[in-house]
Amino acid sequence: PTWVVAAVCLVIVSVSLAAERFLHYLGKALKHKQQKTLYSALQRLKEGKIQEYCCVNLSIGIIACLINRTIQLRLLLITLS
Q: For the chain, which residues score pLDDT lower than 70?
């Protein structure tokens, strides 16, 4: 069903945004406490891993939408037959 695909996409996007916000505030806290080594490690992590994670999430969302459209088209064709 369409609503299930939408719910899964919503969960994936929500978790991604929450993780990004958490890392943002963690970076602010590290910078404020002058923990330069941990802050630079966090920046390197964000630059590499988070970008890969976001690309994977975006790909999953696009694939889920394509699957949803395919199912809708098949149901429409079955209904019209």
A: 1, 48-58, 65, 81
Give me the phi and psi of 33, to 5 degrees please. Answer: -85, 5
pTM higher than the cut 0.70: no
Write out the DSSP string of 12-80: HHHHHHHHHHHHHHHHHHHHHTT-HHHHHHHHHHIIIIIHHHHHHHHHHHHHHHHHHHHHHHHHHHHHH
CA atoms 55, 56, 60, 63: torsion sign: positive
Residue 1, helix vs strand vs coil: coil
Helices 36-45 and 2-32: crossing angle in degrees, nearest 10, is: 160
